[in-house]
Design a protein that fits this description.
Layout lengths: L1 E3 L6 E3 L12 E5 L4 E6 L2 H10 L26 H28 L8
Antiparallel strand pairs: 1-4, 2-3, 3-4
């Protein structure tokens, strides 16, 4: 898993002094009350998460502030973008239904038993 840059990022968290070889710069969005970063999982990590449903959080230090682990986009979207996502979801459902119907047809579910 690796932190990645994203358009909303407005700050960079630099590695601690002396840790530049093992810690990389992390791009974040911050309003000085919250800090949001974006992470990309490897295919192996995605499969592990899919099958176990477990995500671990590891923080340096003796404690950490309250956190929120998300899979949903954390920023507000404009109304126009919401329509695009709705249309994309409808297209995805239509494709899924067509795939299921195709599989059913391949197995002869729709054949007349006269």
């Amino acid at each position: 898993m690796r932190g990645i840059d994203f358009p909303e990022a407005n700050k960079r968290l630099l590695p601690p002094e002396g840790e530049e070889d093992s810690v990389y710069t992390l791009h974040v969005w911050s309003d000085n009350t919250r800090c949001i970063s974006k992470w990309k999982l490897t295919w192996r990590e995605r499969l592990t998460l899919l099958f176990t449903g477990v995500l671990w959080f590891d923080c340096w230090g003796s404690t950490h502030p309250p956190i929120n682990l998300l899979v949903k986009y954390p920023f507000e979207r404009g109304p126009r973008r919401g329509w695009v996502l709705t249309i994309m979801a409808l297209v995805a459902w239509a494709i899924l239904i067509l795939l299921v119907l195709g599989i059913m047809w391949a197995f002869g579910v729709f054949n007349n038993a006269n």
